[in-house]
Structure formats: C-alpha cells, structure tokens
Amino acid sequence: MDSIHVSLVVAAGSLANLAIGAMFVARVRRPERARGLGFFGTAMALPLAAASLIAFLDGMHPWDIALPLVFVVFAVIEVGVDVIADFDVRSSRWLWPYLTSFYVAQWAVIGAAFRASEVGGAVVLVTYFVCLASAAYSYRRVGHGTDHEGSVEQRPSLV
C-alpha cells in the first residue's frame, strides 16, 4: 500500500469527521462558524480524490480507488445544494436521501481507511463516532441546523 495513499485517506477522513463534528457543535454554540467548518470538512474531498488518483495510477485494488470517490460524490452534492443552488435540503422532502448520501460517504471513507491501514481505519472510525455524537447533540438542541444567514433554526417542541 502506498504510504501517501494511506496518509491521505486517514488524514482526510479524520479531518472531515472532526470538522463536520465541529460544525454540528457550532450550530448550537457559534452558528456563524458552522458553515465554514462544514465547507472545510467537505473540502476533504480533494485529498480523497488525490488518494483515488494515486490508487488508480499505482494499479491498486478497485475498492481503493472507488471508496474515497464516494465522499467526493457527496461533496459535489453538498456544494450543489448548499452553494450553487442555495437550497435548504434540510427542510425539504430530500432530507433523507441527503442524509443517506452523507452517511454512506462517511462509511465509504471508513472502509477506505481500514483497507489502507488497520490503525488508520480505527482512527477514522473513532472520529466518525465523535462526528455522530456531535450530530446527535446538535439535533437535540437545534434540529437540522441553521439557516443560510447563520441564525439558529429551532426544532419544534414536542410538548
């Protein structure tokens, strides 16, 4: 396994999870910072794309090429929804397909990291659980996030 490939997958996967996890916490505590943290996490698609290119050029297994690209596809969807279309997917009927693409992308990166290195896979898996806990915290406090101006969108009360 190419050490640059391993480094890119593990570092980008971990940073994506931590940045997106920080974005979830920021939605509660510092909503004005949430968007930038989310973009940083999404930008980790660039080193993951580079890892796929390295895997392709080195003739590595097709899974080593394909798995990081799943996150790249999610990043394209994310940029298309949040930047280009400025569409509030979190308040639409497209929420569940969007969330599914997000979690499938995270799982693909975990798989890519475990294929690259057992220790690296464990690191990415731990950061995934940090991100997951942050998402649960955010959802309990503010629902699915913030509006595009950074103000907190309150979840309707169940009582």
**Helical stretch count?**
6
The biggest beta sheet is recorded as:
none
Going by helix content, strand content and strand pairing, the class is: mainly alpha
Low-confidence stretches: 146-152, 154-159
Shape: globular
Cα Rg: 16 Å
Count every beta strand, where a strand is a DSSP E run of 2 or more residues.
0
Order of helices and strands: HHHHHH
**Count of discrete structural domains:** 1
Average pLDDT works out at: 89
Q: Report the end-to-end length measured between terminal Cα atoms.
A: 54 Å
Proportion of residues in extended strands: under 5%
Task: Work out the helicity level.
Answer: over 70%
Topology at a glance:
Layout: H1 3-29, H2 31-43, H3 45-57, H4 62-84, H5 95-116, H6 118-142
Provide a short characterization of the protein structure.
This protein has 159 residues and is an all-alpha fold. It is 77% helix and 0% strand. The longest helix is centred in the N-terminal third of the chain and has 27 residues, at 3-29.
